[in-house]
Design goal:
11 helices, alpha+beta, Ubiquitin-like (UB roll), autocatalytic cleavage (chains A, B), about 25% strand, homodimer, globular, 2 domains, amino-acid biosynthesis (chains A, B), 6-stranded mixed β-sheet, L-amino peptidase D-ALA esterase/amidase
Chain lengths: ~425, ~425
């Protein structure tokens, strides 16, 4: 946990409404950090449905493997998360540790270990001592006052400089359902420490297949659209829980993909996930600028996305942003290296509202002064029109600063 | 041109023997830099054959397009190179500029413009004023004393901190032929300025198809195996010229791919190209450590190469090296994100000779002290065995330091 908060942090946190069917507790288990919470236990009402998306890393962590193995049951009663140790690349010990962790939580909450979801974030390659959960589990399960959403979001932080929460309300059948989410991550974006985790909860009753479809459908335009350093974590995990408590208020279960009420839920969930994803970029390690890359006019959306990520991941583009330099030549370079269809002589590039290049060369009307003014802003939009088709994409990132190098040059030691 | 020389620069330069059939001159044309040479003219004997490989960028520079358009002739009489301006993304003006440049050089050397090869390196998007060549071309063509190889290599530098040259000799039919090469680049590696260029010359007589086969065959294991920041230049150009002057000494032309004499030439050329490629990594922007990544046991060589590049390009691996931190968890991460076949539980990782991980977890015998000692060295080998097959690869890179961010945060302004 860094000592100074990112200058891009939100100026205030939203009021997070209570959400029926989920209850948090946090504790200090001393897994790595001292003097701060590092364990989060969420207990979930019986009947809670769950959906998940996970890292595509071929070296996924033991908790990721565990969650994948139980996800098809579609039900959850608990979520146990620790920061400070990723339990990744820990071989048989890692597998034993997740089994023991699930057993410890299941005993305390009187549920089946196969209903306990797990996530760990922190250093890779150190065995995780699951016995440490044993020391705090009764305290967690018996906590008299439930922890707040902010407390919960704080317990899962590593190199994050601020907790990330978001909330949304949706009217269904004249009643309101709530969606609350939290995330951590300061790099994917920057694994090994700043692994991306997000946990989202709703009190709506939603069947597992519908829940999974909602989550998977919104992931590409949110968490898969944020990058800090192009590095993919071994532990990335997004879980969406639906406690179903809203059924008691007369909102019947959403269990069909063609349920017309799903549209508003999907839209609200998508916005909330984008909000959390942007907060991750705003807390990118060493970040001083937030960057939205917009690509349009590509042959396809997929092609636009590849090009947008090529720009967002380019160290040269990111250092230019850090230096407040409207160096559009580096954007050209990043388009060119993406390997996607592009016609140099149809390319146009904007920083904010200032068009700097058009028809394959510098815009004759381009004012260096105006472009420089854009680069001095905290939030910067880089827009590229390829002039080829209708494909478009939008991704978020941050600048690459000396602080990124400092943070990552001595993280482990 | 940076003011301090990379600590990884060679302690001395090789004696570069004369090479019959090529003659250099350099000049100060004031294209961008003041008080240093920024133009190189190489005049080549009639009968010189040429081969080339170029950037795969979809936004290639005007000189790259020009070279590609004349390469099939297979013959060259001149090479004109400037630093300070890449003549990339300059639209129709860029095309006019290369045509004019070739015409200016052709008139001075009394040859065909289609026999003049061009390369430009520097800022992207600024029109190149080819008239500036006119001002110096007579001085260049009439230079009484040919410029040395080191002088030539200096004239093509941008953010490079030292000139890069290499030489090799090969005995053929009892006579010696010479191969001399130069390169520039401090990033591909870091385009837009540190564009990679290399020009290699031999006095052997080699037919264009054989020459192209030699060059293309050796590129993957040399220049395509070096990365500084994963960014691909718009201008990357490697040209190999064979003046044929050695024919007069009785070494008959190498004009068949099955000529048995080619084996030694190929080996010497490959070594020389690897030497130049490594010098580029050693002059990587802000570099303080040289890193060789070795991957073995992959399913195929191609797969090994993708994984090796994923490690070499990972900002987290590179910052760990900068911090002298034996953070092998980040190597695991980089293997995992490469998307290639990998089995976590068969993976082994070494820093230098110290095995830090084996069978998917930390090596029980691993000494943090020994690993840390390796990381303090200037040259570091990171070795990964995937345990799956026979595929292997080797790539070179450097660490990612605060100086990289500083150099690239204010290059253009």
């Amino acid at each position: 946990m860094a000592s100074t908060v990112s200058p891009l942090a939100p100026k205030s946190y939203p009021d997070m409404p209570d959400l029926d069917g989920v209850r948090f507790a946090t504790a200090e288990a001393g897994i790595k950090y001292k003097g701060r919470t590092d364990v989060l236990l969420a207990s979930l009402d019986e009947g809670t449905a769950v959906a998940g998306v996970f890292t595509r890393s071929k070296c996924s962590s033991a908790p990721v493997d565990w969650c994948k193995s139980i996800l098809s049951n579609g039900r959850a009663r608990a979520l146990l998360v620790n920061s400070g140790n990723a339990n990744a690349f820990t071989g048989k010990k890692g597998k034993s540790a997740v089994e023991l962790s699930a057993k410890i939580a299941a005993r305390a909450l009187a549920c089946d270990p196969a209903d306990v979801f797990l996530a760990s974030t922190g250093v890779i390659g150190e065995p995780l001592d699951a016995e440490k959960f044993e020391d705090v589990i009764d305290e967690l399960a018996a906590a008299e006052k439930p922890a707040s959403w902010l407390d919960a979001a704080k317990a899962i932080m590593t190199t994050d400089t601020f907790p990330k929460v978001a909330t949304a309300s949706v009217d269904i059948d004249g009643e309101t359902i709530t969606i609350n989410g939290m995330a951590k991550g300061a790099g994917m974006i920057a694994p090994d420490m700043a692994t991306m985790l997000s946990f989202i909860f709703t009190d709506a009753a939603i069947s597992p297949p519908v829940l999974q479809s909602l989550l998977s459908g919104e992931t590409d335009d949110s968490f898969n659209s944020v990058t800090v350093d192009s590095d993919t974590s071994t532990s990335d995990t997004v879980l969406l829980f639906a406690t179903g408590a809203a059924e008691k208020r007369g909102i019947s279960k959403l269990d069909a993909l063609d349920d017309p009420r799903l549209a508003t839920v999907r839209a609200a969930l998508g916005d909330l996930m984008q909000n959390l994803a942007q907060q991750i970029a705003r807390d990118g390690e060493g970040a001083r600028k937030f960057v939205e890359v917009q690509v349009e006019g590509a042959e396809t959306d997929t092609s636009a996305r590849t090009i947008a990520l090529s720009i967002a991941n380019s160290p040269l583009v990111k250092t230019a942003v850090a230096g407040e330099d409207a160096n559009w030549g580096r954007v050209v370079m990043a388009v060119g290296k993406a390997g996607e269809p592009a016609d140099r002589d149809k390319l146009a590039i904007w920083f904010g509202d200032v068009r700097v290049a058009v028809d394959g060369e510098r815009d004759a009307d381009y004012s260096e002064e105006a472009a420089s003014a854009v680069m001095k802003e905290e939030d910067i939009v880089i827009r590229v029109d390829l002039g080829l088709g209708e494909g478009q994409a939008r991704v978020w990132t941050c600048d690459l600063t000396k602080e990124y190098v400092a943070i990552n040059g001595d993280y482990r030691s």
